[in-house]
Amino acid sequence: xxxxxxxxxxxxxxxxxxxxxxxxxxxxxxxxxxxxxxxxxxxxxxxxxxxxxxxxxxxxxxxxxxxxxxxxxxxxxxxxxxxxxxxxxxxxxxxxxxxxxxxxxxxxxxxxxxxxxx
Length: 118
Fold this sequence. Notes:
Layout: H1 11-22, H2 31-57, H3 64-81, H4 88-109
Helix pairs in contact: 1-2, 1-4, 2-3, 2-4, 3-4
């Protein structure tokens, strides 16, 4: 299964952005850094949603990778609709969501970890 991207997808950069909040070595960002990081996370999620959804919808119904990908898309849309996150926990939710979408994208595209898209 190949994902046809309409935008360049750099999974390595996206994972690196999420790692800034989720990594064991993650330092709490300053308020200004957190604002920038939030915009980056939301932008990355926005890019991945249609790519993952399109690839998932090409798979047969009731196929676990399809269901997993569509669930990730649903969660991502819910988080983006909820507006800017008010606290650190919510920022981490965005980072986890981005990581999940990266995982689904790579599963559906067959691209190796840390690499760009297909």
